[in-house]
Amino acid sequence: MSGSSAVSGAAPRRFAHYFAICGIDTETGLEPDELAALYQWLEADRQGRDPDTAATGENFEQSPLKRTFKSKVLARYPQNVEWNPFDQDAVNMLCMPKGLSFRTQADQRDPQFHSFIITREDGSRTYGFVHTFYEEVTSPQICSAMHTLYQMHNAESTPSSSSSSSSMDSLASSLDEADSPTSSSSSSRRAGGYDSSRDTLYVSKALCLITPMPFMHACRRFLSQLHRAVTADVAPPLPLESYVHNILYEVPLPAPGRSLKFHGVYEPIVCQRPGLGELQLADFPLAEAFTLLGAENLVQVFTCTLLEMQILLYSHDYQRLMTVAEGITTLLFPFQWQHVYVPILPASLLHFLDAPVPYLMGLQSKEGTDRSKLELPQEANLCFVDVDNHYIELPEDFPQFPNKTELIQELSEVLLSFGLSANTGAPPRTRTSPGSTPGSTPSTPGRERKTVALRQLEDDGRNGNLAVEELAVLELLQGNATLERLQALTKRTGVTVARVDALRAGVKAQGTEGQGGRTAAEEEELRNAKLNVQLREVFASRFTTMFADYEAFVIQSAPDLESWLTNREQMHNFDKASFLSDQPEPYLPFLSHFIETQMFATFVDNKIMSQWEEKEPLLRVFDARIDKARLYNVRAPSHRSSSYQRCSILKESAQAIEQRLMKIDHTAIHPHLLDMKIGQGKYAQGFFPKLQADVLNAGPTNNKWSHRTATAQRRKDRHRQQTEHLALDNDLKEKYMQEARSLGKNLRQPKLSDLSPAVIAQTNWKFVEGLLKECRMKTKRMLVEKMGREAVELGHGEANITGLEENTLIASLCDLLERIWSHGLQVKQGKSALWSHLLHYQAREEKLEQQQQAESPVSQVPERRKSDCFLAMPSLRVFLIQDMRHIQSMSEIKTDVGRARAWIRLSLEKKLLSQHLKQLLSRQALTKKLYKRYAFLRCEEEKEQFLFHLLSLNAVDYFCFTSVFTTIMIPYRVVIIPIKKLSNAMTTSNPWVCVSGELGDSGIMQIPKNVLEMTFDCQNLGKLTTVQLGHDNAGLLAKWLVDCVMVRNEITGHTYRFPCGRWLGKGVDDGSLERVLIGELVVPSGEEDSGRGCRTPPLQRSPSQTRRISITSLSGRGYKPTSAQIQEAIGESVNNIIKHFHKPEKERGSLTVLLCGENSLVAALEQFFHHGFKSARLFQKTVFVWDFVEKAVAYMESADQMGDLQETAEPLGMTCQSLCHYVNSINSTPRNIGKDGKFQLLVCLGARDRLLPQWLPLLVECPLILRMYEDTALLRDRSTVSTLIGVLETIHDFPITLEASLVKGIDL
C-alpha cells in the first residue's frame, strides 16, 4: 500500500500522471450540489420526514454565498493514462470537498493548499495535490443569478429562524464554509449581501497534480509557482503549457536512493526518494502532526490505529487532516492500515461515519463549532481527534503502548533537537462522563493557539525558520512598551534575553539565503525531511525490538502457494500463544490485542507468501533490519526484558537524506517551447486559462529517457510473465490472491462517484457481509482457543487459552457487537447502541409487566429444568431484564459502553448470549423503529446466522464476568443436603458455614437452627473452591449426616457442589465437628431446547476416573483399589500438580482441588496408607490412619527420650523432630477437624514444606507397622516406598501455597 506499490507494474516512471483544473462551468451556470441534496434526502429519511419534500439542494435559510454549488473538472491533461484511469467524480469531489465557494471583494481570498489520496480496490494509492485560489467571475449570467438568489434569500428569511434538532445537522453545519470571513465584513455582508452593481464576485478554482508518490513539498511549490505566473504583472518566460508538459512527460520519478531537480516557473525544485533499505517515502511534515497534537496524544492515537479502532480526525483545515492521517499511517511501518481510509471525507459522504468497520477518516469542522454539538453514529470504539484544539478522546478499556513513557521521552528529545516542543496538546481524555468539557474550551481556539505559540517560543532553540505565529509573537513582544523597558534594563545589567534575541535573529535570517546557497524554503524542507525520518526511525526501532523473533512463530505449513491460498481461512499462520508467552509481562495487554488485528494478519500472510514470490517492500526492509540487529547483537536477543532500547541509527538516517539533497543525482529536462501556433498560450492576467489540449495530451516521442525506461520495462514484463507461467496459471493466481488478501477486509475506500440510494444500499450490504464474516471468524477463534485437542492439532500447543488472550478475544467480541448494533441506526442515543436498544426493550417489557400484573408475566422464558442434583436448590429464572438489573445496580460501572460490555460478559458466562439477543431482536416493532431498512439487524438471514455463531460459544465455559468484576457484591445461596434415608437429618446443635473462593472467603456464618437453606451477600469470591461446614456439638442430637452442600452465585447462576457423605459429631465416624469440603462446578443438564445444552465435557474431569471416596466413609467401606490402581493414582495426582505450575499464572485454577479434591494427592496417599491396613476390629472402634501416625510419633518421642535415636545421623534426627512437631501442632489446633481431616492437613503441610519424602521412611521404619499392617501392604514394600519417595520429590521445585481455609488455626 505504500506509494511504491502503486507505481510498479507497467506504469512508466513519470513524476506526475495528470494535471487537472476544477472550478465553475460557465456554460451550465450555478447548479446546486446534487450530492448535498442527496445528503439532505438521507437526513430527512433518517429523521423519518418525507424525503421528497426536503429541499432539493437549494437551502433558502442559508445565505447564497454559503451554499454548496457544483464544481466540475474543467480540464485534465492527458485525457487518460492506461495504468491509472482518471476517476473524474473522485478527483472533483476531493479537489473541492465542499463544492464551489464564492467570495466578494470584502472577504479574505488567500490561496489554500491541500492534498488528498485515492485508495483503489487493491489497496494501491494515488496522491492528489491541490492549490485553490479565487478568480473573479466574469460571466454576467452567474453574477445575475447570484444577485437574484440574494434577493430571494432576503425575501424568504424571517427574523426568527427555527433551529433544527437533527442529530446530524450539526455535522452538516460544521461542514459549511470553514474559512469564515472577518467579523466586520460578515456584518456588512448581512446588511447588504451581494449586489451585482457594487460588489465583485469571486469563485474558487483548483489546480491539481495527481502523482503516484507523495512528493508533497515539490508539488506544492510547483503549483504555487504556476499560480504566481498567472497573477504576476510580468508574464512568465514560457507559455504555461511548457511547464505543465514538462512535469507531466519530462520529469521522471527519482530512482530509489536518488535525488532529482526539475524546474518550476521561477525556481528549481528538488525532491529525493529513499533507497531500497530505507523507510518508504513520506513527505508530509510529521513535525506539524506532533506540534498539533503533542507527543503523548500522537502516541495514543497511533496506538488506537494499531489496534484498528475507529479514528475520526476533526479540523477546519484539509491539509491538517491529511498531515495527521498520513503521519500516523507512515509510523505504522512495517504494518499497513487495512481498512477504510479517507483522510478527507467529502460533505456528501457523511453517512459513511455509520460504517460498522474500523476506519481512519478526516472530517472538516466549521470555525468555532463546539465538539459537544457533533453527534456521531457510534462512539463505543471511537478515537476522536480534535486537531485544531489539540485534544483527543480515547475509547474505554484501552491498553497502553509498551514503554510508552520512554518512547515519548525519546520522541521529545528528537523534537527538541530541532527546536520543537513536544508537550503541546491537552491531556487525552477517555470517554467517561458524557458532559465533561475539554481541558481547553474549544470555543476559543485563537487563545489556545497563542499560548501554544508562546510555549513553543519558550522551548525554541532554532534561531531561524520561525513560523508565522512566532513572527506575530515577536511583533507582540516588540510592540509592548513594558517589555521594551524591561529589555533595556536587562541589557544595562548585562543580562541578555536570549530567546527574544534569537527570535530577532531568526526573523532577520529568514529573508537571506541559508547555508550553502540554499534558500530558506529549501533549508526548511531539508530540516523537515531530517526530522521526519528521525521520528519515524524511533517508531520503527520499537517494532524491530518488539518483533525481533516473530519469524520463529510463523507457521509455514503449506507446500505451495496454491494450496496455501485455497486453505487460507482454515490455517493458523502464527503461534500466538507461544509468542505471547515469550513476551515481557508489561507488553502483554497491548500485544495480545495487536496480534488479533487485520494488519498483523496481513503482515504474517506477506511473510508466508514471500517463500513463493518477491517480498513485499515494507517486509523486505523490516526483515533486513532484524537481520542487521542480530548481526550486531552477538548475544541472543534478550527475551522477556522490557527494558527500553533507544534507536541507534538516527544520525545515519538524517545524513543519508542530507547527502541526497546536497548532491543532486539527476536533473530533468528544462521546460522548453512546444510546437504551438502563434497566438496560442495567451491569457488575461489573474485568470488561469484553458490550456492547449493538443500539445498536452501526448508526451514527446523522441525523449531518450522515456524510450530507455520503456525498453527496460518491456524486458521486465517479459521476465515477469515467464515467472508467472512457471508459478501458476495467472488468472487463477490473481483470483486467489485477491480473495486471500481481502480476507476479513471490508471496503478500503468508499466509492466516491455515483451515490444513488442503490449504491449506498450496496455498500451497506458489503458491510453486512463483512460483519457476518467477522463474527464467524471471532467465534471460531474463541472456540478453538478454549477447546482441548482440536486446538492442539491446530498448533496451539497447550489446550488452555491464556486468561489474557481470552480477555482480548472477549473485548473484540464486545467491540464487534457494538459495531453491529450501531449499523443503520435511525437516531443515535447515548454512546452505546447495544445498551440503548436494551434500555428501550426494558422500558417496553416493564410497561407490559405492569399492565399484566394480574396475569402471569409474559416476558419470562420457560424456567430451566434442573437434574436431580438440584433437588433442594430452587431453579434460577432465565430473564434478560434481570441480568440488566444486576448490571444497573453495579455502582462501579459509570458509562453505557461499560454497562453493555458487562452485560455481554455476564450473558456469555451464563451461556445465554445468543438466547438473550434472540429475545431482544424478537420484538420486531422495536427493531423497525430503531433501525433503517439496510441495517444488519434487519437482514433476517444474516441475523439468524449471526445468532447461530454466538450460540456455538455455549460449548465452552467462560468466567469472563466473575474474573473481571472482582469488587462487586454478589448474592450467594447455600443449600445443605442431608442424607435423607438415615435419621438425624435435623440436629440440635448450632451449625455454621464458611464459603471460600479464589478471591477470598465469606467469613464464618451461623445457620439458623433446622434451616437447610440461606442466602448471603458478599464481595465477589471468584470461582468457589472450598466450604467449611461445622457445628458446636450442643444438645442431645448433636450428630449430623450431610450428603453435600450446594452453593450458587445468584448473578451468574454458577452452582458448585461440595460432596461430603460423612458424619459431623463427636463419637461418630472420625469424631469430626468440622469438615473442609472441596467444590466442583455443576454442569446443568436436561436443558430446554434453548440450545444451551450443547457442550463438551469439562476439561478438568476425565470420565474414566472414579470419584474420590474416602475409604472410611459410609459408601467407601466395600471399595478396595488394587495396588497398581493406587500407584497409578499417585502418579496421576502428582502429574496434575506439576502441570498446574507449568501453566501461566493467570489461568492455573485451584490448587486445593489438586491437593484435596477428587483424584487428588491426599486421596491417593490415603489409599496408599489404607492398603493392607488392619482398620476394622471386632467389637472395637474403627482405627484410622491418623491413629497409626499418632502412635508412630509417640513411639519416636519415647525412643528419643530413652536415647535410642541419638546415634542416628543428624538430619534424620531433625526430620524426626519435624514430624513430631507437625503432628502435635495439628492435634493441638482448636478446630475439631476429625482424624481424616488431620491426615489431610499433614499431607498438605508436608507437601508445602517439602517434608513428605523425608517423613515416609520414619513411618516405614517404625516397629508399630508390623502390628498395624498386613505383610502384603504397600507401605511394607521397600521398593514401592522408595518409588513413592522419588515421585513425591518431583513437586519440590514448585511453591505450593495452601488456602487459608485448610490451615486456619495451625500454629507451627
Which labels suit this protein?
single chain; elongated; Tripartite_DENN; DENN_C
Average predicted confidence as pLDDT: 75
What is the number of E strands? Answer: 25
Helix content: 40-55%
Alpha carbon gap, first and last residue: 68 Å
Shape: elongated
Task: Give the strand content.
Answer: 5-15%
**Given the structure, what is the number of helices?**
45
Give a quick account of the main beta sheet: strands, pairing sense, barrel closure: 6 strands, antiparallel
User: Which structural class do you get from the secondary structure elements?
Assistant: alpha+beta
Radius of gyration (CA) equals: 39 Å
In terms of per-residue confidence, which ranges show pLDDT below 50 for 5 or more consecutive residues? 1-10, 53-58, 160-192, 432-475, 500-514, 634-638, 704-710, 722-728, 740-746, 789-801, 857-870, 1086-1117
GO molecular function: guanyl-nucleotide exchange factor activity; small GTPase binding
Biased composition (Low complexity): 155-195, 427-445
Region (Disordered): 155-196, 422-449, 699-722, 1087-1106
Family: Belongs to the RAB6IP1 family.
